[in-house]
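Thread title: Can someone regenerate the structure for this chain?

I was given the following input by a collaborator and told the matching structure tokens would be attached. They weren't. Posting the sequence so someone can regenerate them.
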Amino acid sequence: MKYQEKMKELILSYFSELDTSIEVLSQKAERHIPGVPSWVLCNRKIVIGEIKEAGFVAIKVIPDKGLESDVIEELVIRNDKELQDLTFPWKSKFKIDHLPKPPFGFMLGDMQIIEQENKISASPSVEFNGIIGILSNDKISTTFSIEEAKKDAINFWNTALNNFPKNTSFLDNLRKIFDRFESIIKRKAFLERRIHRYIKEYAKFLLPEFKKVFFDHELILHGEKRFADIIIQGNTGLPALLVELENPAVKIFKKSNELTAEANHARNQISEWVRFIEQNPANTDAEMDFLNGPKQRLVRLLWVVA
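Best answer:
Regenerated them for you:
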């Protein structure tokens, strides 16, 4: 196998193992996922710039929501300007003719600079989500090994367990929650229960405004049980909202603009919840009394109205 092909295989395997390890570590702790680096649990554009004569490569890894899988782009770096272009926005002081002696390597990730005068709400004046690195060829096999991916995953996850970084704004943290929500619903390992737990943890950000919200709420009728994915008690004057979550891969409409079988099934599930509520007064006792009033219905993980 050619060196370039082996290097690409190593890098792709590293990121695959990194994602898988974080998926395992985050089981039943999905609320901490926004704390992991931006290049984890996503699809990435990986640019590898080979500095041939020096025996080095420059690498840039960028999360890309438009990709269906990781992709690698290769290029040759022939001068200092091309090296600076690839490593932007980091202002590299390295010169092709004066790179450190091998073995050498470093990686920078998720960089941002915020103006001192307005730390609370200011957008970063310089921001980069992803990784930038320069490595000698002999460092690639260790930096992007499966063992290193597992170690990095443990390190990232332990850091995430300490919640958000203190030096970032609330707006930036909020964006992380939505970005992570968008990325994890596309991952096969994040099945419905995991998505439910994530939404529950960040309900005040991901759900419509509410007084109270109930997840997997039990409804009973003639000894039968049903579990409503989400029931939302709206603010005064607003109807209750019954939400059925579906895999975002499920199509709602056919080409004819008619509902698909999956969409009809989801809609029928909510209709059944309503039947249970209306035919058994016990389902509206105590704090669930608000279900006696008007009820709206919502199907789809990404809030497509049924």
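The beta strands are 44-51, 56-63, 71-76, 105-113, 126-136, 212-221, 224-233, 240-244, 295-299.
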